[in-house]
Design brief:
This protein has a three-stranded antiparallel β-sheet, with no helix packed on it. It has helices spanning 35-51, 71-84, 93-106, and strands at 9-10, 15-16, 31-32. The protein is 38% helix and 5% strand. It has 118 residues and is mainly alpha-helical. The chain folds into two domains: 1-62, no CATH class; 70-113, no CATH class. The protein is globular.
Length: 118
């Protein structure tokens, strides 16, 4: 997600398709562009224009310092949030499991995973 660029978002087709696919495997990956995600992307663009934060290399997620968001930056913020919230033994990857579980609960029966693949 931190490598997401504006040109990977296809509003006409209603999808997000990372260039080069998954980093680990290179397998093509396409995610639906939900109304909520489209709204969030619009908010990011509006905020970017109002604050005059420069879009670095077309990246959607850019720090206020006009630098790219890195894995280390996210990890550091998550560690501080866990420390401040007195949460122990939590990893960023744990959020993936939460999202998949929540998505599965919203999926109609018959689908085997949160992405709707059977």
């Amino acid at each position: 997600m931190i490598r997401l660029t504006d040109d990977m978002v296809d509003r006409e087709r209603g999808v997000i398709e990372p260039e080069g696919g998954r980093i680990k495997t290179g397998v093509r990956q396409v995610a639906p562009l939900t109304d909520r995600v489209a709204d969030l992307l619009d908010e990011i663009e509006t905020e970017r224009k109002q604050s005059k934060i420069r879009n670095v290399n077309g990246l959607v997620f850019t720090r206020e310092s006009e630098k790219r968001v890195t894995k280390d930056a996210i990890t550091g913020r998550l560690k501080r949030a866990c420390r401040d919230g007195k949460i122990k033994n939590f990893r960023f990857h744990d959020l993936r499991h939460c999202a998949k579980t929540a998505g599965r609960e919203r999926e109609p029966s018959g689908n085997s995973d949160a992405r709707g693949r059977s």
